[in-house]
Design a protein that fits this description.
Structural class: alpha/beta
Strand content: 15-25%
Number of strands: 19
Radius of gyration: 44 Å
Shape: rod-shaped
Length: about 625
């Protein structure tokens, strides 16, 4: 047997190691072991890469895209009062210093009182009210809000203690406005801390005071809300209706009644090329949406967090254990699928398709269950597992192809070898009993042909003749057992099993007869005495496999089926036919062909007469 040639390099060494393991421990155990090793390596590599900045960037993009695309609607109870350019201009006109910053406390007090007069439910101020220029400024502010009925929640420095480091008003609830958390390298606000310091977060305090919300203490992923459908222009992207503080006094009471109003800096513009200064703007997962490309106002982030806490929903995560299990499962799926794929373009297309489908599923899972499953690490582990096993399978395939080619290319058609290597054909080359059809051909008057031609002419004639016959045998997927000088022994149905071996043999014989008649006429026209090609076909149980000694063996067939085929080939001369096949061949054939019975004939070496047939189209005219 010719040894298989393994690929060179690292892959070749791996294949040789695998072959050794298969020989020592068995193919099943080895394949399971290598799959487990590849799965673990792929999962570990994916989890490690998931900690690197480029992969985190991709994972964050998938997270943000799902979050922004699958955002739920906010409750309709919020209103944002903007401290924008118009508001600061109006404030500077009435302030004693005509300053644009810091916020004028007297003006702010009047704004709060004006909102209260319109029946708002609560007022949240996203400004620090822990610094006063004088006791008189504080007293004046306190006087202006004295009759306000709605609860007022303001921000204070968490490092300062109310009543000790700054004066307090009985009307005010103090909170920490610095609850926005950017825990990743990209400074995108994805989390919120509801209880960050001695003061609760602004959104938490508002929810407790205005809606008797149960306080939360653990930081959470913000599940951002959809933009309010009624806003547009410079308010595009806002979670709630937004009005400039400069025009609050002119707003109808119905727009504000029973609303939770947030006062804060909002400097988004109607156009992207606006030169208005951007203050308190933060990068958030909503940056893909209109109105957020240049950032989301901090006051709106608090509203998003409050809306989520009031609704009681959360961005759910599987957790470390489940994340690892998902990554391992993806690696296993990739490895198992990779074992069946060898062509590089199929591998690439498969990975792209699977990753795309997985991304769609992950998106749908978030939409339906708010579950944020990891996407990048599983995709990497799947790809690693897939490509490693597919490359190993391809190298193994190359090894098998070398083996099959070196042992079977003399016998089988190339397309049959390809199917065997690809695993689409079951093949056994060990000795076994099998139902087959045997064809034996012979060229009439071969000895005279050899004697009548010079060596060069004979070589060209006989090679042309056999090339055509072999092409037809391979067309019908016969196995060429051996060439016998002027003839060929071919087997249909081995080593690759075939249910239609009898049909293939008859069809092949008819094609060979047409070809042989044509080449005979061609040779006669050249003045070469070229005889008819006679064929005998027989079907039945034969013993097929590799037979021979230690030094040489051959894949061939033994049994009465071979003897009958040989005797039928010889009987053509007696019956003036070119094709004879047995009754067993006709019985096994499923396709209808025109046949003529030549009766039951006695064959040397066969104990009983057998029925023999020829095809009608191949009966030659009577010879003179």
């Amino acid at each position: 047997m010719v040894a298989a040639v393994a690929p060179r390099g690292l892959m070749g060494r791996l294949i040789r190691v695998l072959d050794g393991l298969r020989a020592a421990r068995g193919k099943g155990w080895t394949d399971i072991a290598i799959t487990v090793v590849v799965v673990i390596l792929a999962a570990v590599a994916a989890l490690f890469l998931n900690t690197t900045t480029p992969i985190r960037f991709v994972e964050n993009l998938t997270y943000d895209f799902r979050l922004s695309s699958g955002a739920p609607a906010a409750q309709p109870q919020f209103v944002i009062v903007k401290i924008d350019g118009e508001a600061t201009k109006a404030m500077s006109e009435v302030s004693a210093c005509h300053c644009l910053a810091p916020i004028d406390k007297a003006w702010l007090g009047d704004l709060i009182a004006s909102l209260d007069a319109k029946g708002v439910k609560a007022i949240a101020v996203d400004y620090l009210l822990d610094t006063w220029s004088s006791p008189e400024e504080f007293a004046d502010f306190d006087r202006r809000i004295a009759n306000v009925r709605a609860p007022i929640i303001v921000a204070a420095d968490p490092g300062m203690k109310a009543g000790v480091d700054f004066p307090v008003s009985a009307k005010l609830h103090y909170s920490d406005a610095r609850a926005l958390m950017n825990t990743d390298y990209d400074d995108v606000i994805r989390r919120y801390d509801p209880d960050p310091s001695q003061y609760r977060a602004l959104a938490t305090e508002v929810g407790i005071v205005a809606d008797k919300m149960k306080p939360q203490t653990a930081p959470f992923d913000i599940r951002y809300r959809k933009p309010d459908p009624t806003v547009s222009a410079e308010n595009a992207g806002s979670i709630a209706p937004a009005y400039s503080a400069a025009y609050v006094g002119f707003l109808p009471d119905t727009l504000l009644k029973d609303k939770i109003v947030f006062i804060g800096s909002v400097t988004r513009s109607a156009t992207a090329d606006s030169d208005a200064p951007k203050e308190d703007m933060h990068s958030t997962p909503l940056r893909f949406l209109p109105g957020h490309q240049q950032g989301t106002p901090g006051v709106e982030v608090h509203v998003h967090a409050l809306s989520q806490m009031l609704a009681g929903d959360h961005v759910r995560r599987p957790g470390i254990v489940w994340d690892a299990a998902i990554v391992l499962s993806a690696a296993l799926a990739g490895a198992l699928l990779g074992r069946s794929t060898q062509k590089w373009w199929t591998s690439v297309a498969t990975v792209i398709a699977i990753v795309g489908v997985s991304g769609f599923v992950a998106f749908e899972v978030y939409l339906q269950a708010a579950l944020m499953v990891p996407m990048t690490a599983p995709a990497i582990s799947f790809s690693f597992g897939f490509f490693i096993l597919s490359r190993l399978a391809a190298a193994d395939l190359q090894n098998q192809r070398a083996f099959y080619s070196s042992t079977l290319e003399r016998y089988l058609a190339p397309q049959v070898i390809d199917r065997m290597v690809d695993g689409r054909e079951e093949v056994k080359i060990g000795a076994e009993e099998r139902e087959i059809t045997v064809m034996i051909t012979d060229l009439e008057n071969f000895s005279n042909l050899v004697a009548s031609l010079d060596l060069e002419t004979f070589e060209g004639v006989i090679n042309e003749y056999f090339d055509g016959i072999i092409d037809l045998l391979w067309k019908h997927e016969a196995m060429i057992d051996k060439m016998t000088g002027d003839g060929i022994i071919a087997i249909f149905g081995a080593p690759v099993p075939s249910e239609d071996h009898a049909d293939r043999a008859i069809a092949c014989a008819r094609d060979i007869d047409i070809y042989a008649l044509a080449i005979r006429e061609k040779m006669l026209a050249r003045g070469i005495s070229f005889g008819y090609t006679r064929m005998g076909l027989s079907s039945g149980i034969g013993l097929v496999g590799n037979f021979g000694g230690e030094r040489r063996f051959n894949y061939t067939a033994y049994g009465e089926v071979v003897v009958i085929a040989a005797r039928l080939e010889a009987a053509n001369k007696t019956f003036s036919t070119r094709i004879l096949f047995s009754g067993d061949t006709l019985r096994l054939a499923k396709r209808e062909v025109p046949v003529i019975s030549v009766g039951e004939i006695d064959l040397k070496g066969v104990p009983l007469p057998i029925p023999a047939y020829t095809t009608a189209a191949e009966v030659p005219p009577p010879t003179a």
